[in-house]
Amino acid sequence: MKKRKVWKIWMIVILIFVGGYLGLSAQTSETPDKLEVKGQQSESHQYDTIHSPPPQNSDMNSNETEIKKTEPLDGEGITVIGDSVIMGVEPYLKEKLPKITVDGKVGRQMSHAMEVVNELEKQGKLGDYIIIELGTNGTFKQDHLRNLLTSLSDAEKVLVVTTRVPKGWQDTVNSTIKEVVSEFSNEKVVDWYAASEGKGDYFYKDGVHLKPDGSRYYASLLIEGLQ
C-alpha cells in the first residue's frame, strides 16, 4: 500500500512538472512573434507620425491663389467718372459692386475730368482702379486725355470706355481714345462701341442712353474689364 501511494505521488509530481514545462515552452514560443508584430506596428505608427512629409508650400500658395481668384469684388477702391450714360448704369454696377464710387454728371466733357479727379482725391474717394466714361457729349483734344492718364499713372488699372452716340464726333472720340490709351501700360480700352453693335434694343430712342437690359450688359463689361 505504501509503495502504491508513493508511486501515485511521484506520478502526480511528474505530471505537474511536465505540464508546467510544456506550458512555459508554448508561451515562450509565441511571445517573440507577438512582440515582434507589436513592435513593428508601433514602429510603423511612429514613422508615419514623425516622418510624414509636411504640407508643401506650393500647394498652400496654390490654394490661397485659388481663393483670391474666386473671391468676389465688392467695389471698394474702384472709381468711375462719367456722364449721363454712367448715371443710368450706376444702379446695376452697385448691384454687383456695392462699395464702388460712381461720379456721373449730365453733359460732362472729357475736359472736365481732371477737375473731377482732383476733387475726388481731396475727398479720399479716388480708388486704385479707375474707369473713365466720357466722350458722349463731344470730341476732345488728345492732350486732354493724355494729361488725364498721366496724372493717373500710379493707379493699378485705368479703363477708358469708347462711346456709342449717333453724332458726327463718335468715330473721332473712339479713335482718339484708342490711340492715346495705347501709349500707356496700365490703361485699357473697354470697347463699348464694338460690344453694343447690333444691340439696338438695349437703347432708348436717342441711341445713347440705355434701357435696364442694356445698362446691365454695360455694367458686366466694366466688371469684366476690371478683372
UniProtKB/TrEMBL annotation:
Q: Where is the composition biased (Polar residues)?
A: 39-49
Region described as Disordered: spans on this chain: 38-65
Domain of life of the organism in this record? Bacteria
Q: Coiled-coil regions in this chain?
A: none
The record, for InterPro entries, names: SGNH_hydro_sf (IPR036514)
Its name, as the record gives it, is: Acyltransferase
* Organism for this UniProt entry: Brevibacillus brevis
